[in-house]
Amino acid sequence: LEKEEEIYPGIELKFFNGHTQGQIIPHINYKGKTLVYMADLLPSTVHIPIPCVPHEGFELLLQLGRKKPEGCFVFTSNVDGQFQKAGFDSKKIVEAHGSIHHFQCSNDCVGDIWGAAGKSIPVDMKHFRAKAFPRCPHCGAIARPNILMFGDWHWNDSRYLEQSRRMIKWLDQITLSNAKLAVIEIGAGTALSTVRKKSETVADRFENTLIRINPCEDDIPDNVSGIGLAMGGVEGLRYIVG
Ligand SMILES: [Zn+2]
Which end of the chain has the smaller Cβ count within 10 Å, N or C? Predict the structure, then answer.
């Protein structure tokens, strides 16, 4: 979304600097009343197909990783599956906040997580309402994206934990092979510090370099050895690759 606009009659999207900068807040005007949805507008991909393609930065990072004997491992708080789409090994990705491409039961009845690919939700575009919701195949309750939201006590983290176990194994392999590790952190702010903390912890464990690419928050704490690049993601990666 480039600017605030009315996407359908009566539904306006406005920017709001909430827990993240430029959060998109839908305003719904109906019969003289306005309903404001004060949370992220985060439909699943089956509601609205995400047309975006991974930008150049993904390719730069992918090629950089492929040149290294031990390859690379991705830890991301993004939920959009762009790393997989860009060609990164799906067994070497941790999606710390889940994935929009997976569903779970809203009651998390049996702990199942299933792929959203191929599922479609018919939407009445005139009223912007789903005509039918995806359902849990086990209990029939409404399914939801397997994404961690704020105050979310029902997120099924089993997929994330499995991914994390693979990352721990990979890091142990790095230790065994005595390889040098560089941590490249891209666009991880302090407002949601999951990724920032992880990169600091890993860089600290291996006493290796953290390269923090962030246009406004590129500072490195004293106990971590690192380089801050006050740039955007693509610009920073171009700078590293040379
Ligand atoms: Zn269920």
Answer: C
**Domain boundaries along the sequence of the chain:** 5-36
Cα–Cα distance measured from residue 174 to residue 191, given in angstroms and rounded to the nearest whole number: 30
In angstroms, what is the span from residue 107 Cα to ligand 1's centroid?
Answer: 6
CA–centroid distance, residue 170 to ligand 1 (Å): 33
| Rounded Cα distance, 145 and 97, in Å | 11
- CA 42 to centroid of ligand 1, rounded, Å: 21
Taking only the tens place, the pLDDT of each residue in 164-215 is 999 999 999 999 999 999 999 999 988 778 999 999 999 998 888 899 999 9
What separation in Å is there between the alpha carbon of 10 and the centre of ligand 1? Answer: 34
Q: Are 218 and 224 in contact (CB under 8 A)?
A: no
pLDDT at 41 over 80: no
